[in-house]
Amino acid sequence: MTDSPERNESTGGSENQEKTAARGRGSLPYYLLIMLFFILVMWGWQAISNANRTEVEYSFFLSQLEEGNVKSASLKGLQLLGQWKNVETAQNELNSIVKGLNEDLKEGEKEKKSPELTNLFVTNVPAQENENLLRRMEAKDVKYGSANEDMSILILQSMIYLLPFILLMAFLFFAMRRSSDPMGSGGMFGNFVKSQAKRFQPSDSQTTFDDVAGMEHAKTELQEVVEFLKEPSKFQRLGAEIPKGVLLMGPPGTGKTLVARAVAGEAGVPFFSINGSEFIQMFVGVGASRVRDMFRTAKENAPCILFIDEIDAVGRVRGAGVGGGHDEREQTLNQILSEMDGFESNAAVIVIAATNRPDVLDPALLRPGRFDRHVAVDRPSREGRLGILKVHVRKVKLAETVNLEEIANGTIGFSGAELKNIVNEAALHAARDGKNEVEMEDFDSARDKIMMGVPREDIMNEKERRMTAYHEAGHAILGWMLPEVDPVHKVTIVPRGRALGVTQFVPEEERFHMGETRLRQQLAMMLGGRTAEKLIFDEYSAGAEDDLKRSSQIARRMVSAWGMSEKIGPVAYRDSDEHPFLGKEMHEQRKYSEQTAFLIDQEMRTVMLEAQDLAMKTLAENRETLEKLVSALMENEVVSREHLVEILGPRKGVERGDETETNGEQQNDSSES
């Protein structure tokens, strides 16, 4: 698909509305032209009338008045408009005045020139001179009158004052005449309520299923959609109806948007993409109008695909929020439900939506007839990760030592976006070191950076380094000795990210189940750091805060959700994990008694203490090995898996049968900085 999409345009509207809009578009320029022409005529008239008068000084006018050379005069505000009896007399007098001024000029000053007078003149009268001036003109028998404003001048001034208001009214008149529905596609707010969906033309560079690796199940589910869009008659002749909506569900970064674009690329049809948050605006009704415009445009371009990303932003359960059912989001959702249910059975418009929170979607959105096909897009398997890596390294120059299968084996639980990030970070690391090819060690550094963070330059004193070494060695010893725990990949006391030390675990195989034995050993490994501190220093530190938090969450779920307690029994007591902004947990009461809550806390404490005892027993039995690992960490700061085999000996595995679990790489951090 192209990275420069063009906005779709709505072509809806009746023929009458188009004619009305055409009349409105044609009438507004004439109104403006007439107004502007009238203003220019008035301005020119005033300019021509003032051009026939010569402006003179008020003192010169008084001198001519005393000499009796003023024939008539009239006041207009503080301006005096008059006419000379003899313009030549006035000109001679003015020339003599200017000549006298030039004789008094100092050396180097520029001589002044007298202006050419006309029969009409104008001068500015000081405000305090009005009464004296009238008496003087009466004494000299000057015809005097009060000059009213010319009608043209009054009209011109009124037009200037009213011009902004007239323009605003003309705009509103023009906009309202375009459509009888102001909120419609051709109305005055048409661009505001128009759908923001981006349109990708089928002629653009396409994404196909060949560009999507590791999602064979999703591609199989969507193949029917592709075939329907290519040849809808094949299904319609047997009375079959293709699903109107396909919901892609999966964690972030697993490629839901990529799959949707691949469907459009395979089918060769237009692809409209929009984010769920783009429907929501501060004005009530705008979201619903955008939904109408989006679906109308999709129908006009059928067959096509309409993709709504992050649909949970607008499709949450109705009636759950504080504002009730009259807020903008719920009106938008109601419009989406109405539009999807209103499709004809042969309408070749497929709506594909993506979300990583299907549990919060409204049930009406998931019922048959709307999003009736749900496709899970999960994290890729080993073969899928290998395929994704091959796709992303197409433009990367790899060294012969790079083994993509080994990288795929060491990235269990990674999503497609995370694998792409590893490839990019490896290329950046090789470029910083000035290499011509990306080597295997660059991929190892990239994985360490993503999983553990960037190394910090913090300087710890000897006691802090030693305590951190025992903490991380405790995690490593428990992970090495307990067979159900994933094997240790690397141990470091170099501060990374927010942690002062990290123990990194890499699973050897993918898993989908966790037994009680594995969970209890996992808890013991998590508590191994603080247990080692207690064993060596006879005190606990604050560095185990994150370990306690994560292990407590697992222990509580073992007791209250997974039925792994004899006293609690096979009962699930749900602790709320709903988000408060959904409005659900604000009023729901806990569905078990205080006595049961106390019992859950006691059983949870028992599980944690048993895990701590297992950790203490294991570390006490391997005290000599613990000291060796600490010495290696104090000396080298980083101990790899190969070095761990030399120190701790071969790790004994366990027969797991077909049990597998996908929980990706794990890491246990020491105290946060």
TrEMBL record:
Catalytic residue positions: E472
GO MF, one annotated term: ATP hydrolysis activity
InterPro entries: AAA+_ATPase, AAA_lid_3, ATPase_AAA_core, ATPase_AAA_CS, FtsH, P-loop_NTPase, Pept_M41_FtsH_extracell, Peptidase_M41
SMART domains: AAA (SM00382)
Gene Ontology CC terms, in alphabetical order: plasma membrane
Residues where Zn(2+) binds: H471, H475, D547
Chain ranges passing through the membrane: 28-48, 153-175
EC identifiers of the protein: 3.4.24.-
Residues where ATP binds: G250, P251, P252, G253, T254, G255, K256, T257
A Pfam family per the record: Peptidase_M41
Membrane topology per record: Multi-pass membrane protein
Compositional bias annotation for Polar residues: 663-673
Residues forming coiled coils: 609-636
UniProt keywords, alphabetically: ATP-binding, Cell membrane, Coiled coil, Hydrolase, Membrane, Metal-binding, Metalloprotease, Nucleotide-binding, Protease, Transmembrane, Transmembrane helix, Zinc
Subcellular location: Cell membrane; Membrane
Entries under SUPFAM superfamilies matching the protein: FtsH protease domain-like, P-loop containing nucleoside triphosphate hydrolases
Annotated function: Acts as a processive, ATP-dependent zinc metallopeptidase for both cytoplasmic and membrane proteins. Plays a role in the quality control of integral membrane proteins.
Protein name stated in the entry: ATP-dependent zinc metalloprotease FtsH
Organism, scientific name: Thalassoglobus polymorphus
